[in-house]
Amino acid sequence: MFKNITDGRMCQCGNARESHLSVALGDYFSTAMVNHWDSRQHSSLHPTDAFGEMQFTGASKRQSYFMRLANDTAPSIVYNLLTRHWGLPSPNLVVSVVGGEGMEKVKTWVREVLRQGLVKASQSTGAWILTTGLQEGVGRCVGEAVRDHATAAASSSTNKVLALGVTPWGVVHDRKQLVNPKGSSPAKYKAQSTFKDSCSLDNNYQAFLLVDDGSVGRRGVETGFRAKLEEYISHQRTGICGSGTIDIPVLCMLISGQTNMLERVELSLKTSMPWLILAGSGGVADLLSEVLERVSPAPPSPSPPAEGEGGATPSVDMRERVAEIVRSHFPGHGDLDKLVEQVLSIYQNRELITVFHGEQEGTDDFDTVLLKALVRASKQRILSDATPNMEELKLAVAWNRVDIAKSELFNGSIRWKHSDLEDSMTDALVNNKPEFVRLFTENGLCILDYLNYGKLEFLYSTTPEGTLAYHLLQRMLQRRLQERPFTASSANLLDDTPDSATKMMSGNGPNSISLFEVSGVLELLIGDVCKPFYYSALGLDPNLSKRNALKKASKVLRGGQLYRADRCLYPWASLFIWAVLQNYSDMAVFCWEMAGETVLSALSGCKLLREMSKLESESETKLSMKVLAQRFENMAHDVFGSCYQSSESHSFTLLIRKSPVWGATTCLQMGMAADARLFFSQDGVQSLLSQIWWGEMRRSTEVWRLVLTFFCPFLCYTSLISYREDEEQEEEDIPRDDYRTYGDTVFSYSDIKHLAPLSCIRIHSKPPKRPFIVKRWRQFWYAPVTSFVGNVIMYFLFLLLFAYVLLVDFKGPPPAGPAVSEYVLYFWVFTIVCEEIRETFLVGSLILRQRLRLYRQDMWNKCDLTAITLFIAGVICRMFSSWFDAGRALLCVDYMVFTLNLIHIFAIHRQLGPKIIIVGKMIKDIFFFLFFLGVWLMAYGVANQALIYSYDPRPDRIFRRVFYGPYLHIYGLSPEEEMDVGQEGAMLCTTNTTLIEGGAEPCRNQYGNWLVVILLVIYLLVTNILLINLLIAMFSYTFNKVQEHSDVYWKFQRYKLIVEYHSRPSLAPPFIILSHLNLFIKRYIRRVPSVKVHDFVRELKGKEANRLMTWESIQKENFLSAQSKVQRGTDSARIKRISVKVDTVVKQMGTSREYEHRLRALENQMEYCSSAMSWIVDTLVQSSMVKPPRPPPTHRGTTAY
User: Fold this and answer.
1) Per-residue pLDDT reduced to its tens digit, 270-295
2) Among 541, 771, 793, 1027, fewest CB within 10 Å belongs to which?
3) What values do phi and psi take at 558, rounded to 5?
């Protein structure tokens, strides 16, 4: 207990005597009663009893965090609480507003500085604003400004201003509402009017740190804690998880303030904390601004500095001038000498202070003022090998202010080196700032020198926690670590705690994220379309199995990891993949613009995003992925359209070129994997498919000519079938002097224009000339359309033979059967099975696991497998007399399955194809309809059966009456007596349970007949009117929806069918066995490579590949230029340009007004000087002390003419 000089009932801590415990009130050793209370000596620590979330009653539903803590709490614990436990985003700037706490009325222009200047600038940088968080003075103005900006800002804005209150616990009004030892979630807090010794919290703050030193009603107890927190934050890194290149800039802003603020400013300046003083706001702010502006530095006095002080001792003259200014601002202060010493100490660190005249300068460029203040302060503490420009650049990157960087740093006056931009480039990439990445790329940064595999792994290690990419990478990393020999370190890393996950994601050792994990994630998302990524960098064979690759990769990563210093082969493509996995839309689009193979890159991004959207659980993130995927598909469609308009042959080569960047895949393969229907609907893609479909024949050839030639093959030598003219051209030898250099590629425009067309680039060497007979024969029979026509004709004959066997010639089991026709049918199906095996296991270069996976993904392959399985089961059963009928039934069902395959065959038809797609969509609707129908049918059937029949245990009759009978009711096919018991005719029935169990027909119950009729009416009303019309509405919606894009759907399905028949032999089953024998001899005995494979895949190397990539880049640039021109012509872009011009005019008018004020002030000074000179002249003339040698000059005014 402590004395209070004025009132014996109150303690010096501010509490009443009665509120203390008895042990504090006693004086057992005559030492408890003292004259001065000290928090450190006379208070004790206890676990906090006020923490959690609070909700302000009568205000918005948004909740704020709060925590009561001691004034000596470590700032590291508090910062961890803010960023990790409360989930507040790490700041790019911290502005600590001090002073003005007790101001009852804040000046209007100060309010505007806080609203239009501070909060707006903080919003553009993603800042924290620290105040006392009370509903008084400047704290209330800041809260209102943050509320207004949060209301006006978009909900998706990433940079949001966070207002944090560092509040003295003893000043909070009605703080008992927050006390709950178990934590509040949330605590109800009612804000009230300001009182004398307390004030309510402001509801516009996101979090409150309630600092308690044991006192009540004392302001300023949080000052020391707040200063330590600011200093700790200033040593933390910006960016996600502290991945930035600079420390978090912290700026203290002084508004007004009492004399106790001088000590606060002095202590902060000693830790090199920059200050921004708002001149004109009153109090200490005006005092310091006047001292800094009016007092000029004087030469130091010869007396040595006092111990512990740095710098020279101020002169007596300076001290007198400062004392005069202090006396003018605080005339009644008792300890004037102390104030003078504090002001002089602050003056010695004037380089860290910036004075802002808000009333005169305005608030438009307040963000630039903040930047200049921080840069000015940073010049005093940066290393000797650093430059102020580098510090200013890092601040601009941290704030994402590319406009400041362009106007101040990249205006041509500074020559930037590659090494100067590396750290800032990494910061811009990690924190998703594509505008800075573009700026650095355009101003000296070489991406080839910048990005190596080690830096790429670092980018993946900074993946934010909680994202899909983070979880996928962590899963792959854990899978690799589980393959390693079990050690103590690996056991710790396999822990599932968040800290262990963070350790695994960061670092450069074998336990951190590597390119092997990235390759695993890409393989999971893209599938078997591409070869594994980054295997060449790790020294792995792409054909290795997963287990062997995992073992070898673990061995490589446990070694020296020398690959990390190697340059990334395709830097922009690697950054594009990284940005897509992070779901950074703008960054991904920019990297796509810079990467090569534009069309394929866009399709690959579309594939990645669509697969990621299937795995993403957050609905908002899933939607953003789908939108970005559709954007990439649109860009692939538009860019290829521009390529097709430029050159048809070049665009065809672009579609079938095997890409070294994207794992030896092609645009067509990636587009199919990405389900890019819009891309396949492009005219250029369809033109290539049509050209491949018809082979060397003209596309205008009628189908009846093909059918006739199929039955009479020698007609292919006549004019009945027309062929395209040969387009083979020999490459002209171009002299070396005609080449021009474009970057690292050597090409000439004549080379680009004379690239070989598709018809003559299917093979790498010139094909040998064949006789006319052989040539025409190959041109007709090797065309996919001929194979299709032959398969259709032979399939119809197969179905006719199958039907004939089932209906006419299906003999009994051996030895009576099978008949000859049935043996022919068996052989026919055998050839079909051989073709299925060839297509699945012998076509392409995939491994067995990948082949089986692709086979399962196709619905028609499943249909073929079902038909073949049923046929084999039926043939086996029909060979035994006991299973003969079952075998016949299986073959009948199998005939239906074989017949349904006709739908797949006719998907190539332009009119039938879209309708088949619509039917497929409607089948999905039927399943939903059958669910509702089944529920209602079962409900009515069970009730109807129970009402009509009291006892009938036979399952067959129960099934017919519960399900089959009500189903027939829908179509009105049931007899009337079955629906109405009262209409029962002459029917033999019994009520004997024994006879009923023996199979006799039970009699019907007449009691519930009235209810049966009512239920029947309701059942028919729901099924025939409600559900049937619901099905019609669903069909209508599906039809209208698909019909709008039916052409797109059909063109997409057409590609699959063309690829299938392109790979098939010329002959159809059963004659296809001859083609199989021919292929076996050519491929495995004579080792003759396939020629048709080059229709869909071609590998370009060297000069030819460079020319094609350069031509594609030119078309991409043309497309982007046209797109930019269209965007500049939109109304929003025009309005934006007009707004910029208006702002420029307003600034110029403000400057002109400033010049006008200066001219007026100069005129006033001139008038004063003129009047003074006139008075001096008059005085001298009238005085007799001095005799002038000549008369005074006369005033020369304007002469009138």
Assistant:
1) 888 888 888 888 888 888 988 888 88
2) 771
3) -80, -10
